[in-house]
Amino acid sequence: MPDTPVPPTTPVPLSALLARTDLGLRQIAGPPEADVHWVHTSEMADPYPYLLGGELLLTAGVQLTDPERYAARVAEAGAAALGFGVTPVYDTVPAALVDACERHGLPLLEVPPPTTFSAIARAVWGLMTQARHHELRRVSQAQQGLASAAARADPVPAVLHQLATRLGGWAGLLTPEGSVLQAAGRDPSTRASAALRHLAAVVAPGTPGSPASATDTSADAHLAAYPLAGPQGLVLGIVAEGREAGDHTIAGVASVLLSLLTAPRQGAGEAARSAALVRLLLGAAPGEVAPLLGEAPWTVVHARGEGAPPDLGSPLVDADDGHARVLVPGGHDIAPHPGWTLGVSAPVAADGLAAADAQAARALRRAEAARTTLVRHRTGGYASLVDPEEAAAYARQLLAPLTEPLLTTLRCWLSLHGSWDRTAVALGVHRNTVRQRLARCAALLDADLDDMDVRTELWLALRGADGSAESHSGQCE
């Protein structure tokens, strides 16, 4: 099956869905392991154009005329698995489809007559919610443990020990050549150590085109390497038996703390800012650490691109697989950076960083949709003349009929001046999906979306809703 991008949802193991005895699902073809990211039902002869990848596709085979081509197209789209309902069209799953799914490595599930497709969808969403809550608890507990370790008298070994314990493996501080300076946890095998040295060279700071992180597997061991900020060029290396959701986030927090702890000759201001970050991780309110961060306002930048993160004159960088967030002193000028697309927030005080983070995320999404290198958050205008609470209350009433993903699609489509194609690109869906969602919006709102007055009112309402809670920070503005 191809390496197809999947929606950023918490995955559910196919085995967990099969274990639900109330559904009675039975796997009859394909590999036993797969991760389900969402559920989609389609009776089209070729659903390929409408699949995002990672879905459990459910069908009763209404238009199944060529099982070989159907299985090939579904596998090519990156679907996690295919669920086939044996009624009302077929009494059994067609043998030709079973054989085709086996050849193309597509897990095939038999859905018994009493089980509805909606029941399967509810089960997936329920399992997904449980997995997400487990991941959030695990990450939160790990962050607290790492931050507490960073506050100890000998912080670097303490952080490495805490990380190795949380990930159930080995964590070490490596030179760019792969020599281990400090480590904690069970010693990796010789083969895993050699593979980790190679990863350290790949991500070492200063290496042209070095990524923000790198992963590999070696003899059933999962390896990861993260470059640390600073002139020493150190690398955080990790060896674990398995990978769980949240591991990357936990390792990212550890790499930030180790970057701060291993930075040589910190001045008073830098030491104070490091202390502020540790206190924030420990749960301190932003207002309490504002004096340590400094009186100058701060700007949050979200960036997406390839290679080393953009140098914006600040060491406070959180980089992750082509995406970076940078905390920049408000007085610094932020200019376009080759190979990267930037979204820039308005300058804020320390207690406004959460709102600024949302502003930067929306600005980045707008920059990507408009195919420009840098977009800054816009403030003021007519919207600033409206009372925020009144605007939020009106927005909730007007937009109440719409739920996700309709709100996301409407917001993105309006921000891109009604362009179907650009909205489809920004959201990563087919243009026909955009049309269907907007038609649904128009029906639920009983509104003519071609009317500029209607568009303006909806746009102001969406802006009011965003301003009340900053709840859509990752979407088109």
Short overview:
This protein has 477 residues and is an alpha+beta fold. The protein is 43% helix and 17% strand.
Can you give a write-up of this model?
By secondary structure, this protein is an alpha+beta fold. It is built from 15 helices and 17 strands. It has helices spanning 14-18, 67-76, 95-103, 117-150, 155-167, 190-203, 247-262, 268-281, 286-293, 353-370, 388-399, 406-415, 420-427, 431-445, 452-469, and strands spanning 12-13, 26-29, 35-36, 38-41, 55-59, 81-85, 108-111, 169-174, 180-185, 214-218, 221-227, 235-240, 298-305, 317-320, 323-329, 340-344, 374-376. The strands form 4 sheets. A 5-stranded mixed beta sheet has the order 2-7-6-5-4. It has a 5-stranded antiparallel beta sheet with strand order 9-8-12-11-10, with helices on both faces. Strand 14 (317-320) and strand 15 (323-329) form a beta hairpin. The two termini are 34 Å apart. The relative contact order is 0.07. The model is unreliable at 468-475 (pLDDT under 50).
Total of DSSP H or I helical runs spanning 4+ residues: 15
Shape, principal axes of CA atoms: globular
For the largest sheet, list the strands in their spatial order: 2-7-6-5-4
Distance between the termini: 34 Å
Radius of gyration: 25 Å
Low-confidence stretches: 468-475
Percent strand equals 15-25%
Oligomer: single chain
Tell me the structural class.
alpha+beta
Protein traits:
disordered C terminus; 477 residues; five-stranded antiparallel beta sheet
Q: What's the SSE blueprint?
A:
Layout: E1 12-13, H1 14-18, E2 26-29, E3 35-36, E4 38-41, E5 55-59, H2 67-76, E6 81-85, H3 95-103, E7 108-111, H4 117-150, H5 155-167, E8 169-174, E9 180-185, H6 190-203, E10 214-218, E11 221-227, E12 235-240, H7 247-262, H8 268-281, H9 286-293, E13 298-305, E14 317-320, E15 323-329, E16 340-344, H10 353-370, E17 374-376, H11 388-399, H12 406-415, H13 420-427, H14 431-445, H15 452-469
Parallel strand pairs: 4-5, 5-6, 6-7, 16-17
Antiparallel strand pairs: 1-3, 2-7, 8-9, 8-12, 10-11, 11-12, 13-15, 13-16, 14-15
Helix pairs in contact: 2-3, 4-5, 4-7, 5-7, 8-9, 10-13, 11-15, 12-14, 13-14
